[in-house]
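Technical note accompanying the year-one report. For the benefit of new consortium partners, we illustrate the data format agreed upon in the data management plan: each record pairs a sequence with a structure-token string. No post-processing was applied to the example shown here.
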Amino acid sequence: MQGAQTESRFRGIGRYALCFAEALVRNRGRREVLLALNGSLPDAIDGIRTAFDGLLPRDCIRVWHAPGPTRASDSGNDARRRRAEIIREAFLASLSPDVVHVTSVFEGFGDDAVTGAPTSPVRRSWVTSVSHHDLIPWHDPDRYLRPNPLLERWYCDRLDVLRRADILLTNSEFTARDVRRALAIADERVVCVSAACAPIFRPLPHRGAGTERLRRRLGLDRPFVVTAGTIEPHKNLERLFRAWTWLRRDVREGHRLVLIGRNDEVHRRLLRDMARGAGMRDEELLLAHVSDDELVALYNACAATVLPSYDEGFGLPALEAMACGAAVIGANAASIPEVIGRADALFDPYDLGAIAAKLEQVLTDEVLRASLRASGRERAGRFSWDATAKRAFAAWERAMERQGAERARKRGGIEDPMRECIDALVGVTPPPGERERLALAQALACSFPPPDRVPRLFVDVSELEQRDAGTGCQRVTRSVLLELLRNPPAGFRVEPVYATVDSFGYRYARRVLGRLEGRSVGGEAEAVPIDYCPGDVFFGLDYQAQVVPAQRDFLLALRRLGIPCRFLVHDILPVLLPDYFPAGTEAGFRRWLCTIALFDGVVCVSRATANALRDWYRVHVPDLDPRFRIAWVHNGADIESSAPSAGLPADAPALLEQLAARPSFLMVGTIEPRKGHRQTLAAFEMLWTRGIDVNLVVVGKQGWHVEDLIERLRAHPEHNRRLHWLEGVSDEYLDKLYQTADCLIAASEGEGFGLPLIEAARRGLALLARDIPVFREVAGDHAAYFDGLEGADLAAAIENWLALYAAGKHPRSDAMPWMSWRESTRRLLEFVLADCPRARRACAEEGGRQS
């Protein structure tokens, strides 16, 4: 697929490569199609994966790696390029292919593509096939090749690759005849499979405001003629510019010539100088680089399209314009007549008078223009990518039959492609230096995963690796990780991993495993980089607002390799309620949300959080990939499954006895501004003043912006009497508090889930919660609710609840639904492993057994 990865992806060759591959996939039937991508050309990998999303399983897109640079324009890269050629051949051999098709062999002079060597030390057992587009440099070597000896040598090497290929697929009969004659290749090895254009090239039913905006942006205030091309001589632009000046004055002044192309500033300047030298005024020529959608709009709106090239392998711009309903004229040379299909639409590309006459005729003769539009659409309909793919499959099957027994013998002889690769690499001189040997080792590891390697599920626990802060988020991380380690998904090995902000890449989280298993892990085991391969999955379980953006490029490299990356989102409160968080939190959290949006999806801990995130992305990340999935799964509630901490302080029995003596209310969570502790304390002070004898127990560590509240708690007259603050308690102690108290107060103004609600309900503890969507989602009718932000609002709600409680009419939480951490994790895996059919089936089967 390198023809769709290099700069060619912005030209007809890239369009051909992508559309041809898509057609092969659509028409593969029971055949297996694999796409091989070069990891040294990363910019196009995501786009290619996107193009095949839903058409081809993710693991059918493979990426190979080799140290660069390898471009042939620098002779200092020769040894590196030779090693890259060997790695590529061995990588292809490792796939055990029947056919290897190269979408474009003329890549790699000015970029790091490696499309094959004339000879290979790695034994081939497959049919080698190449898409061949044209021999334009061969036709004019004095202009294209001989001024640059490096380019000439490289081009001749590419011709040798063509000669050695088992079959050449051409896009036109002209090109097929040309390559047979020029390279003396037997007729049966050259097959014209034709070409087509992408489906986006079509008549637009309504040109409307979009086209008018485009015309205004480009300054198109009159009818215009479209041509597409670069400064290369065979595009024949200089003659087109000269012929333009031969047009009748009223025709010339009534139209503009629009040249479409991805030309840089240097080439744009040369093109303008060429036009001025031909006699064109600056306002007559418009140089435009447009998107595909804009190009379709221009073809639909133009007065005519002209293709003046005297050498083309196919002439794709003509077909694209015809498919859009444009009136197309072109040169009567090379392959262009095959595409246009009408003699009266052609001109001699070397005759200025003929070019000018045909241009003037099409711009002034409405009958001809209408006829060309109608016949062009009909003619374009005869070109089909599906037909091209079927011809290609038939050609490959004939080539396989011709090779017959010889090919079967070769296939049986390749047992260890990587060993052949290493043996061949040893022979390349000069030998690589130490840094390149390291890069070679990494490239080989990524390109040749061991055949018996079990795919990894990498679970990011970067925060837990450093410390267990005992927060609700940490409980979720610990609980899910434990469940994954106890019951790994079928076909996967679970690997906890971590990263830091100051070191590139993820490492195995050995300290976490040691803590969970009750043992210490030495420092020598703490910095082992992860070993990753296609088929692995990355899951960002821990919340790490700094680490994930710092590791953005590493994670993107994983994704380009085909490793899906998904993340868990607890809440998005720092961007919804920024005033409740420390300075800088909102900016860091926003950066984290935008970073994870680059990957495959997120799973939230509640429907409310998922909805809030969708709304936020709609505003702040409007170009979010439509394949990015936002799901939600509730947390589990069984504390005993989360590696609970144990131990009770000496005064625990006395406190529990005191709580049992009078109605007791419990708050669980870090003390921070949004949690409602100030309002709750104010409410209980009112109740105590009114002589209502109740306890308030606050369980949670000190957070931020609450220094004055902490001072009040510690110095409060009711401290250690009817007011108790337990800064850090074990899970065992918390469980006993849930069992002893009468009611849990959830006063938070914003939550992602509300884990204490579930944990409390599991012990039958009644619930009094602020009326916010997420608490309604979690608790439903099994809790009492309150509104208002003042102490008096909550005090009234508590008095009302006490009255209902005394009468036995308060909402009960006993029947509130909840999930175990095992079930919650199983549902998480259904999302995290969405691209892994085997693992998905295993999750579904496990769910069926539990049901």
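Partners are asked to follow this layout when depositing records. Residues 385-411 form the longest helix (27 residues).
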